[in-house]
Every structure is written in C-alpha cells, then in structure tokens.
Amino acid sequence: MQRIGFIVPEVFQMLGLAPQTVFEYANRSAGKAVYEVRVLSEKGGLVRSTIGIALQTERFSGKRFDTLIFGGTNEATPPITPGLLNFARRGLNAGFRVNGPT
Predict the structure, then answer these.
(1) Per-residue DSSP letters for 1-33?
(2) Domain boundaries in the chain?
(3) Rounded to a whole number, what is the largest CA-CA distance in the chain?
(4) pLDDT at 67 over 80
C-alpha cells in the first residue's frame, strides 16, 4: 500500500487538499485500499484553513510515507518552521516523493 501524506500549515488553502479525491477514487476503482492518505501538521490536532474551517491532523512522526504533498496558503512565502523543514528533509533523505504548491 502506498502511504500519502498531505502536509497542511496553519491557515492553509482548502484547495490544497483537492488531490485527495484522486486517491479516494483510485481505492474505489481498485476495490481495495491501494493508498493510505493522512493529513499531517507539525503539532497535530486541529489546523485552521483560510476560510476558518478547522481540520483534524496527525502530528509529524517517523512514519514512512511514499509521497508528501505540501498544501499552500494565501501567503506568497508561507512560514517554514524548523519542524517542517526537518520533516521534509527526512522525507527527501528517505527517498519520498515530495510535491509542493505550484
């Protein structure tokens, strides 16, 4: 099973989670769970979106992910915390596929 992690920063754009639908439909089409999708944040717990909706997340951990997808914010340069940077570096060093907002 492929493990996919969506990383959301505080005050994230909801649109950044839209690709989750692709993995949902791939699982449905296969008739089994091919992808395990998790929503992650540095501290875990509720994270607020730009429109005020809060989303439950899991805290960064040592769990291995095959792909990490970083959600965006309304800021041109969102804040990058040391915890986020370390988690991304661990992923790159472990051979994860890492995708960011375009």
Answers:
(1) -EEEEEE--TTB-GGGGTTHHHHHHHHHHHTS-
(2) 2-99
(3) 40
(4) yes
| Model confidence pLDDT, tens digit, residues 5-56 | 999 988 888 988 999 999 999 999 999 999 999 999 999 999 999 999 999 9
Q: Are the beta carbons of 98 and 36 closer than 8 angstroms?
A: no
**What single-letter amino acid sits at 46?**
L
Q: Residue 47 in contact with residue 60, Cβ under 8 Å?
A: no
Alpha carbons 68 and 3: distance in angstroms, whole number: 9
pLDDT digits 0-9 by tens, 45-54: 999 999 999 9
CATH number, domain 2-99: 3.40.50.880
Can you give the pTM of this predicted structure?
A: 0.82
